[in-house]
Design brief:
The complex is a heterodimer of chains A (289) and B (164). Chain A is of the alpha+beta class and 289 residues long. Helices cover 35% and strands 24% of the residues of chain A. With 164 residues, chain B is an alpha+beta fold. Chain B folds into two domains: 76 residues, Ubiquitin-like (UB roll), CATH 3.10.20; 73 residues, [2Fe-2S]-binding domain (DNA polymerase, domain 1), CATH 1.10.150.120. In chain B, 35% of the residues lie in helices and 16% in strands. Chain B has five helices and six strands; from the N terminus they run E-E-E-H-E-E-E-H-H-H-H. In chain B, helix 2 packs across helix 5. The longest helix of chain B has 19 residues. The N and C termini of chain B lie far apart (57 Å). The chains are: A alpha+beta (289), B alpha+beta (164). At the A-B interface, strand 1, helix 1, helix 2, strand 3 and helix 6 of A face strand 1 and strand 5 of B.
Chain lengths: 289, 164
């Protein structure tokens, strides 16, 4: 089905793009890979009089090393580019594998990480992992730039903190301590994940400091906070035992609901399974006990 | 800055130069099928999931039902009709025939183009890598067995050719 008519803007610089967004407000949408936006436009779920094609903006491209050991990802980076990027492999543990498993090859080649975050479709892989890695979204507007943690950027289902005149320009991932390991696993019988869990283990004392996030079940990635606290600093076997003791409580607190992807109870159960598996991989153990 | 009601684009289609004027909202699949008579790309799910509309843009698979035609401006598009050279089928097409890797044929153009991209980007993919790469191309007839056999046979033959 054809999308409704729109005026196409093809800015050549960030300044031109911000100008177009400022002039047309909520009647304009930034357009990159189109893997989500175009399908929503075709289905008449969303309607915009102005489409601002940001694919030619050099400011939004590429992956760069940050001096502090972190990495800065241009919002236009495609999932396929990130799955094959050396810096991502080196500085964002677990992300290469995640990016190479998103949806299918056509989505990975066209779809961008910036678009994925801005569309804020909960059934997506990157948000949980980017939140667990402590990533920040950098937003540009005529007022300047601001940076928000992923947890503060994604507000809920299809909802972000991005104002109409703002553009997500890059995602900054901070340096992680040497030896940090991470793992993401998702389950879904449809194209999109029903449940995803990201585990990041940062060496601390005899054990690790943990960041655990469950994604796709509700509007935002959810911290599995009881498990994170209980596992802190413990050696591998004790950390896994602590996870076992807490994970049901964390999963039960997630605002999951019944839908085509499964019942809320089923999805909460998957959180407990994936949390154990991702934690094992992040500890350098085999995925299944 | 340009703000356009119609847009002029130039791109390569199956090796030939094309220039055309489009509405920005026009979809690549419609331009290929209705303007150029290239009916190999099939509109099926219309939401980018099934892969029946797959074409190659700059050598990589693209969902033509959900790609704006104006986005191929300056790029190179290959459809299933562009694979055979002077009547000689492409090796991937031949392998599909040899193995009976199709039944109704509806998914086949997209499947074969996805395999072309796989072979162009992987020197010697494993069966797991083949299945992973083809995950977005759905086939309701074959159960994928014959398709994977055809691709693995092609990969093994290539490997043997390199040895000799």
């Amino acid at each position: 089905m054809l999308p409704p008519r729109f005026a196409l803007h093809r800015p050549r610089s960030l300044a031109e793009a911000l100008d177009a967004l400022a002039r047309h407000g909520d009647d304009a949408a930034p357009f990159a890979g189109g893997t989500e936006l175009l399908i929503a436009m075709k289905a008449r779920v969303v309607r915009f009089g102005h489409i601002v094609d940001i694919k030619r903006l050099p400011e939004l491209k590429g992956v760069r090393a940050l001096p502090d050991g972190g990495v800065s990802i241009g919002a236009l980076s495609t999932h396929h580019e990130l799955a094959n990027d050396g810096l991502v492999r080196e500085r964002m543990p677990g992300y290469t594998e995640l990016s190479g498993n998103i949806a299918n090859i056509r989505v990975r080649v066209a779809g961008t990480v910036g678009g994925n975050l801005c569309f804020a479709e909960p059934h997506a892989d990157p948000p949980a992992m980017l939140a667990a890695l402590g990533a920040h979204a950098a937003l540009a507007s005529p007022r300047g730039e601001r940076k928000l943690a992923i947890d503060d950027f994604i507000l809920g289902e299809l909802s972000t903190a991005r104002a109409d005149d703002e553009l997500l320009v890059r995602i900054d991932v901070p340096a992680l301590a040497n030896g940090t390991r991470a793992c993401y696993r998702s389950v879904g019988h449809l194209e999109r994940p029903a449940v995803g869990v990201a585990a990041v283990a940062i060496p601390k004392g005899q054990g690790h400091s943990w960041r655990l996030r469950a994604g796709s079940l509700c509007g935002q990635p959810t911290a599995l906070a009881n498990a994170e606290r209980a596992m802190e600093g413990l050696a591998a076997n004790d950390a896994l035992a602590a996870l076992d003791a807490c994970i049901e409580v964390d999963a039960a607190a997630i605002d999951a609901h019944d839908d085509l992807q499964g019942s809320a109870e089923f999805k909460r159960h998957l959180v407990t399974v994936l949390a154990r598996r991702t934690a094992r991989v992040a500890l350098g153990l085999s995925e299944k006990a | 800055m340009m703000e356009v009601a119609v847009i002029d684009i130039a791109y390569k289609l199956n090796g030939g130069d094309v220039e055309e004027r489009l509405e920005p909202r026009e979809l690549l699949i419609d331009v290929l099928r209705d303007r150029h008579g290239l009916k190999g790309a099939k509109r099926s799910c219309d939401i980018g999931v099934c892969g029946a509309c797959t074409v190659l843009v700059d050598g990589m698979p693209a969902t033509s039902c959900s790609t704006l035609a104006c986005d191929v401006d300056g790029r190179e598009v290959t459809t299933i009709e562009g694979l055979a050279r002077e009547g000689d089928l492409d090796p991937v097409q031949e392998a599909f025939m040899r193995h009976g890797a199709l039944q109704c044929g509806f998914c086949t153009p997209g499947m074969i183009l996805a395999v072309k991209a796989l072979l162009a980007t992987h020197a010697a993919p494993t069966e797991e890598e083949v299945r992973h790469f083809l995950r977005g191309n759905l086939c309701r007839c074959t159960g994928y067995v014959k398709i994977v056999e055809a691709v693995m046979d092609l990969i093994n033959k290539r490997r043997e050719e390199k040895k000799t």
